[in-house]
Amino acid sequence: MRLTDYTDYSLRVLLYLAVRDQGLSTIQDISDAYGISKNHLMKVVQQLSELGWVETVRGRNGGLRLAEQTRARTVGEVVRATESDFALVACLPDQNGERRPCVITPQCRLRSALEAARHAFLAELDRHTIGEVAGPQGPLAALLGIRAIIPVVPVAPVAPASDNPVPIA
């Protein structure tokens, strides 16, 4: 089974945001990290946002972040939501439940084997969550060019070193 580029890009966006973990990312950040067209990613992000899996923040300092519950989503859920057709052959039902007739349908064993394979494929994807496949974050972050976000901690002023200590006001 081959997934569409759209599904591939959807998974990549979710992985990037899961690895990034803190702060906001831009579509340009993700485009640069993977070498994917920004225009394609805009469509993907729009759907992921509509599904509630990605939060978008508008404005000058805006960007994207993974919605809190998305780490627990399975890869299978993402694939089902983004893939347009699971009919491996014409006699299997498409997304609308329609199938093309075939003269050997009454005696065909191939169809049931293909349906079982499709079911097994999705069942395996359902065993893995976005959070799980995004780990370990350190090595993935390095490959994606993501630098760790270090929180800014205020530091108390230090008195200059001298023979006559001067109090700091």
TrEMBL record:
Keywords: DNA-binding. One of its GO terms (cellular component) is cytosol. GO terms for molecular function: DNA binding; DNA-binding transcription factor activity. It holds the Pfam family Rrf2. NCBIfam families: rrf2_super. PANTHER family: HTH-TYPE TRANSCRIPTIONAL REPRESSOR NSRR, WINGED HELIX-TURN-HELIX TRANSCRIPTIONAL REGULATOR, RRF2 FAMILY. This is HTH-type transcriptional repressor NsrR. It comes from Paraburkholderia rhynchosiae. The gene is nsrR.
